[in-house]
Amino acid sequence: MKQRRSRKKSTSSDSDPKSTHSSSPSANSTSFIGHELLEWQGENHAVNRALAIDTRTFDTKEALLISSKIRKDQEAFLGVLVARGITPSFFATTTASEATGSQIVVKSTPGSDLEAMVKEKTVRLSQVSFAVKASKFGSNSFHVPKGMNNKWSWKLLLGMSKNALQIVPSLQEDASHAISDKPGTGLPIDVTLLTSDISFFADLNENAHGQAALTFWDSAIPYFQNSEISSIQIVIAKTGMLALQIPPTESENDDDTINRVRQPSTMARQHEIGIMRCIHSIQLAFAGRYEEYSKSSNSETTGPPIDIGLSSIDSSPVGYHFLARQWARQSVLAHAARKRLQFNLPETLEGTQCAISFDMSYEVLPFPVNGPRATSILNDLDVLSNSSVEVVQTVPLSSIDASLLFGLPITVKNGLENGFDQYQTMEVLVYSLLRNLQERELALLLQTAPQHGHTKSASQSLFGSAGSQMFLLMAKELPKSLSQQPQCGILFRYAEAIHLIGEASSTTQISLIDPDTESQLVDYVDQALDCLECSTPNPQYMEHVVPSSDKQSRLREMATSLATNMHA
Predict the structure, then answer these.
(1) How far is the C-alpha of 282 from the C-alpha of 276, rounded, in Å?
(2) Is residue 374 a contact partner of residue 460, using CB atoms and an 8 Å limit?
(3) 188: which strand partners?
(4) Does the pTM of the predicted model rise above 0.85?
(5) Domains defined along the chain, listed by start
(6) Residues 112, 116, 119, 124: is their CA dihedral positive or negative?
(7) How far is CA 76 from CA 79, 193, 302, in A?
(8) pLDDT tens for residues 310-331?
């Protein structure tokens, strides 16, 4: 079987949180990406992203301590966004109001100003604290301040979303002279509202949260219908900690104080259960409204898609890196969506031949997404997608010289096909090929050449060439403990003669050192390696890895201290 292959500006009501924003940005504020403004090699894949951070907390020792850690992690998160080239076009945060009669305002900042603050290391998120009073002596119940109750929390989220609608259009207008001929300058905004369980779930009235979520949905619908907002994602940074612990009062006796000491763990569990119930109530409210909206839109008058969601991340660098990685992936997909690698497998002796195809993507991108090198490396996928590919031979993995592999590894896996039957057929072909390569410990050597009419795109890529190129396709290795079949493959570039600049190394070694010294050096290397921890490195935790030299110094200090204590 041979197969062939007008945007309207919204105004806030008096009841909404007050907002302030800095002066209008300059016209060069088109250096954003993700859901930001960007030009890719003459193509405009522009999208807008607005990020708003809720910094409210309680004015208690525990809450301020936890919130201080959250603020530091969020400030580092903003630095990660700038470093990865996914600076939001709009950034807002809550801050205490200097005016009388208002406790909190929303301070807005264009993305270009945020980039400048990150580079100058002047990013500071200010906490807005609210005093807490016990409802009565001798109990753990308390009055939730007005600025922290569920009604005001939801009103604040809506106010920050409206604030984005006021400033982002001005960013586009200031940049219109640079990209006025291209589509995309009036794209709707993706709004991300980042808060924490300390502030958003200070009030654990689940029914009130569900009702407030319905009000939020109804208030946000007009902005979707006017194509001003494309999505609103509420992200909860979960600390898992209890921020409120009312201290004992003078009227309590010693038994009451002892009971209080035993209660925090129980209170923390109850608080976590309360949060889960509130989240469930909010999700039910959103699901009900979405079902009603879907039923009210018939096939002839289909309304705009509504994307309002609630999710959570760990309040840690790992959680914020996950969010940044999600945004970077969306930004890359805006440029390099659905790139295919297709080639024919060899014809068998019975005359059977099949074509196979993969979806290509990057799992690693070490450049800022809005930089020229990222543009070039993504254009490499365009070159491969528009190239003719032939299978040359199989290569034993044990014979591959790793120094001849270069470029970023490309992940290939089974992709969507035109029909379900074709998808299932291709799925069997892809998994069978990868399984055979893994079991036989082989790689496929592929030769590619740009098709006629696509040589220009090759000149705009990082590793593209107007001539042929060589690639090695191998199954992605998984830990043997998982006992799983490979689900995807890795495509490496393989050097050719015109790429080599090094000299051939001699395999003959002449030792000019005496045998005793050589033996001592060999023993030292063996012992040095034994002192190192042997484990699989996880990129998510590499920033927190303690160097071996620090570990050894700590061990020496502990040994010295132990010896001193024993001697004493």
Answers:
(1) 10
(2) no
(3) none
(4) no
(5) 22-297+307-335 (no CATH), 339-499 (2.40.290.10)
(6) negative
(7) 5, 17, 42
(8) 999 999 888 999 999 989 888 8
